[in-house]
């Protein structure tokens, strides 16, 4: 056998660790079962909890506050139960250490998981609570888990710690490439939370854990990496399930567990807690800082939007974690392995840090992209006693007076606030349609604004973060229809053209949506033109374009040529208020202001508005839910002002049926909005169509065809879409036909609404169950199915 060098004379023999107690077969089986159960059950509950959250959101139902606390409690009980006997009973120190690590991790999951009760819109508050709770947990776990370091530790802990830093930077790299940072405070809090979570991982997987896998003479680094790495991976998965609000934890379930093997290899080379803290802390920083949990959502339906890129970053992170485990295992865990020098490890870490910076600035989405605040002031304009007059001239006079009063009120009441915002160098945008100001700032700015006497309330104005590559619009592949479509025939619009000779000429419809493909053959001729017919507050595009496809489809159903539009002789103007299917109250106001008083490109809405150029009718196939920052009242002054100006606002009821009371996202519930539900080819109300009752008002007002409606899509083609979004522009087109047939009706909103209701045909209500009636059929069908032919004849009469 091999003989080592003799000890110097008089030097005592160092104590040797006791031989490792081999685990009994039943302990091994129990550990394998408990580990597999912990991984499977935790992954299923985390994914299931997120899906439940998303289904509630997509269905338009209120967020269930107790969902995540209940999920966490069940996980703690059902995962902790098999871990507890492992932590107490086996004779094997390694099995007991494994059970204690898993039990501690699941208790940490319970503590941190409860924080998901904080609404996602308050992300800064969540991150602050996460940082504080994780730091406290790290302190407690570290105190309880102290153990002496095993003897004969390798002599290069500094170099190994730098390798831990390098591993964390490698895990962060995909997020810096594919993600985007939020605001300054949000990013700083994410960094604090990541640091606390790294310290927690270091305390959880400290010497007291690893020493149980290295006991024996000689130490067995391969056993440490394979067995200890598996045990550490399960513990890290439980920790990952606790990190981030709903959705942000899902990528960590993939990327953190393989890091357990890398940590085992680092520990075999003499790493302490610092290496684990750096590797895990930087690893969790990616999802916490570079993604917004509100954007990991099924609402972003485009196949290459935030959920796609989060999945891509998670896949890349998984590959990096596996490569780290293999590389560190080969480099550090072989019996003859020797860690690199501190200089070499430093060069590796520095190179990765430089690469991270280059990727973030070059290939990534540099800068800060935080949310903003919408400050709604107490005083809103008095719009009583407006001038009266028939037809477009009367409408224009009212619109001009409404515009003047709104601007005067905003200028007078916002002056002090805007002066203070300039003094503090806070970027802001004033609005007049609702007396409000959008301000860049976080919770501290929000608290200051909320305390001002002129401020009624402060809302979050949601902003989506940029993507690594454009999502791309939905494109049409079908050819132009050879004849008027089924929906056109169902409401009798084709008879209006052929028998009454009315096509909507002389009327302009305004669209606030994802944009419009202005070059589409069915839409190009209908664009009003001039320097005040297009506005894009998102990207500042100079001419009509559509990054999504939704807006092109809805405008086509209202005024498109070639048999797709209800009023093919009408003109259209457009504004972009949706970006990747999400908006916010400020951008909705941008477009509604533009519709009241269009202004030239680069103009000032306050001074350059032209109310005489306002479109007569607005089609709005959107709603502003709480996830976008709206409360039920925020857009109420806007629709009231448009109504006072004689502009007909037509809005989609929403696609959150068949639940009763699901018409709840502004502007659909407002009494001065013409709210439209959807029916299918059999005149049955579509299951997805939102319905009443709505407090104080009957909604929807009426219904129109909304299933498998063919219309224009970007690129010159055609395709079918379904939703109340598709039904709404058809009603706007019917109003255009009515006002084209009788110009004296222009601006007479009460009379027009009554004629529409009086001329509907029956529609068949549908319900979620046989016992649910939504308070009556009128809360499902409204007045009935719009009839263009009867409505135009009534308007002429």
TrEMBL record:
It holds the Pfam family Peptidase_S8. Keywords: Hydrolase, Membrane, Protease, Serine protease, Transmembrane, Transmembrane helix. Residues 1-20 are annotated as: Disordered. InterPro entries: Peptidase_S8/S53_dom, Peptidase_S8/S53_dom_sf, Peptidase_S8/S53_subtilisin, Peptidase_S8_Ser-AS, Peptidase_S8_subtilisin-rel. Residues 504-766 form the Peptidase S8/S53 domain. PANTHER family: CELL WALL-ASSOCIATED PROTEASE, SUBTILISIN-RELATED. Belongs to the peptidase S8 family. This is Peptidase S8. It comes from Micromonospora deserti. The lineage of its organism: Bacteria, Bacillati, Actinomycetota, Actinomycetes, Micromonosporales.
